[in-house]
Amino acid sequence: FLDDVAIGMVGDSTAIGDAIGVASNRFMSVEAPSKVMVLLTDGDNSAGTIMPKQAAEAAKGLGIKIYTIGVAGSGVRMRGFFQRTQSVDRHLLEYIAHTTGGQFFMADSTKSLQEIYQTIDQLETREAAENVRHLNDDFFDRFLFASLGAFLCFYLLGILWWRRWP
């Protein structure tokens, strides 16, 4: 999905509350022992219809733990994201994380962002049984029989029909 994301495709504003609301809505149909959301933002809440604190309370009610990451500084580059310097509402992100049982992190470089993701990965390690079903549908037999049929037709035509014509 991130390969299709472009800078400015959703505007220049940051809607933290709406983002939490949309993600929480996706979690409502998930039956899991642990529901974790990572909120990565480079700005202050400047748009949206849902207030971030209300969205955090709703997420808490759904049993969703939110880890918040504020990105600030010019040393962080992720496929073209975070190219402008903005203020990060540290207190809001701390509130969201604390309310939902998560943690707040501040990243000022790509290296620190990678370390934060490793820390979250260690904090949220769960054993899970995977129910993966691989469907292999090979089509070679269809092409093989079609090519053998065509070969047989041309062979028989060559023996029976085309030899008669001078």
Helix content: 40-55%
Provide the spatial order of strands within the biggest beta sheet: 1-2-3
> What is the succession of H and E elements?
HEHEHEHH
Mean pLDDT: 77
Number of strands: 3
| Poorly predicted runs of 5 or more residues | 74-85
**CA(first)-CA(last) distance:** 64 Å
Shape, per Cα inertia axes: elongated
Beta-strand proportion: 15-25%
Structural descriptors:
3-stranded parallel β-sheet, single chain, 15% strand, alpha/beta, 166 residues
Briefly summarize what is shown.
The chain is of the alpha/beta class and 166 residues long. The protein has helices spanning 16-27, 52-61, 90-100, 110-123, 140-160; strands spanning 35-41, 64-75, 104-109. Helix 3 links the parallel strand 2 (64-75) and strand 3 (104-109).
Describe the structure in your own words.
This protein has 166 residues and is an alpha/beta fold. 41% of the residues lie in helices and 15% in strands. The protein has 5 helices and 3 strands, in the order αβαβαβαα. It has helices at residues 16-27, 52-61, 90-100, 110-123, 140-160; strands at residues 35-41, 64-75, 104-109. It has a 3-stranded parallel beta sheet with strand order 1-2-3, sandwiched between helices. α1 (16-27) runs parallel beside α2. The longest helix has 21 residues, at 140-160. It is elongated.
